[in-house]
Specification:
Active site: 364 (proton donor/acceptor)
Protein name: Peptidase M14
Strand order of the largest sheet: 1-2-4-3-5-8-6-7
Domain Peptidase M14: 9-385
Cofactor: Zn(2+)
Largest sheet: 8 strands, mixed
Distance between the termini: 37 Å
Keywords: Hydrolase, Metalloprotease, Protease, Zinc
Helix content: 25-40%
CATH class of the largest domain: Alpha Beta
Strand content: 25-35%
Shape: globular
Radius of gyration: 22 Å
Length: 385
């Protein structure tokens, strides 16, 4: 099955039961049960609050790939993409799928942090970042992942995450819609063969993405932290790839990004199964721009602001706070910064043309306040998504 087919027929594989940013265990239970008729599904542990952690074994091939999603509970885009991918792999009579399943075995933890997913928070129920617990293994979810790693003995690991809207793909006005990293495995960030193999797969995925989102792929800084799971597994000489689902224009539900992650999973897995990465694409990997933090959700340019008895011309940066309200994520506009923001970009930009800008009831604007709209020359300008 070619990537061209999957792009053209994506609606056929889209898991319609999952949509938007809020995905918890209740949303995937039925899907896990559905796929248990075809794949080997087991409960490999419990969360702090006694929620099930599932492990799905797919395929029977010699190449083994371990992947996990929602280690951070509020990073759900990759979970949606996993279930899209499972719909492809369920077509076991398809010649390409059958060939893949005979070559590769996937071990999938679709939701490592079900407590954080339910609360829509990065942390687990003990308020621990599981991606800083790779050595202490202080949390039950961390121990589950490490036990799966030790028992499954993967040849590759895919560490699936989501990133904020602040990231740019380098120092340009291009959002980092997808980001990758081949983590370091020592303090001096030696480019080992293990890292090079991960780089090969990233380059392959990037080549596909550049045809659809040119210049919107970034890589993360590879500073080493042995407490991070990706660094820890890389240090054990298992090629590990960090995926970060980011922002696409007006895609705050991350449905377009979900599709791009789905494509990347397929392209990456096919490369692992059949491409036999040999560590030859290091140069191309380092040509991918490194992420920078140059974006805000909204920038209001050239605003005249009242400061006591004086006025000043400045820019206003608005960042959305993601808040769970009645099982739905609401994007609350909040003033992040008031300054000269000429070196920054907004996913949405409003030019006030040096007109007076106020909040409701002519309240002066200040950093840290949440507002639904601003008044520009007494004309209401909504700030919602």
């Amino acid at each position: 099955m070619t990537i061209e087919h999957l792009i053209k027929e994506y609606e056929q594989y889209l898991e319609a039961a999952l949509f938007g940013r809020y995905i918890n265990l209740d949303h995937i239970k039925t899907l896990v049960k559905k796929h248990s008729a075809q794949f080997d599904v087991s409960i490999v542990g419990k969360s702090v609050l006694n929620e099930d952690i599932h492990f799905m074994k797919v395929g029977s091939g010699a190449k083994k790939v371990l992947m996990w999603s929602q280690m951070h509970g509020n990073e759900s885009t990759t979970t949606k993409a996993i279930f899209d991918l499972l719909n492809v792999l369920a077509e076991s009579e398809n010649t390409s799928v059958k060939k893949f399943l005979n070559a590769c075995t996937l071990g999938i933890i679709p939701m490592l942090n079900p407590d954080g997913s339910r609360a829509y928070t990065r942390l687990n129920a003990n308020r621990v970042d599981l991606n800083r617990d790779a050595q202490d293994l202080s949390q039950p979810e961390s121990r589950v992942l490490r036990e799966c790693f030790d028992n499954f003995k993967p040849d590759f690991c895919l560490n699936l995450h989501g990133q904020r809207t602040i990231f740019s793909a380098g120092e340009v006005k291009k959002p980092a819609t997808i980001s990758f990293l081949s983590p370091a495995q020592d303090d001096v960030r030696t480019v080992t063969m293990t890292r090079k193999k991960a780089m090969d797969v990233i380059v392959k995925m990037n080549n596909n993405l550049q045809q659809q989102i040119p210049d919107q792929v970034g890589i993360y800084d590879d500073s080493f932290n042995i407490n991070c799971v990706g660094d820890a597994f890389q240090a054990l000489n298992v090629p590990t790839i960090l995926f970060e689902a980011g922002h696409f224009h007006e895609d705050y539900d991350r449905e377009k990004v979900r599709e791009l992650i789905f494509q990347s999973l397929w392209v990456g897995l096919v490369e692992i199964a059949f491409g036999d990465p040999q560590g030859s694409k290091e140069k191309a990997y380092f040509e991918i721009p490194q992420n920078d933090k140059l974006f805000y959700d909204i920038i209001i340019r050239n605003a005249k602001l009242k400061k006591g008895r004086r006025h000043q011309i400045s820019d206003i940066a608005v960042q959305y706070e993601e808040r769970l309200i009645q099982d739905r994520i609401h994007f609350i506009p909040k003033i992040e910064k008031i300054s000269n923001l000429s070196g920054f970009f907004g996913h949405r930009e409003i030019n006030a043309h040096e007109q007076l800008v106020f909040a409701e009831d002519n309240m002066e604007l200040s950093e840290g306040i949440s507002i639904d709209f601003v008044l520009i020359n007494n004309e209401r300008q909504p700030l919602f998504v």
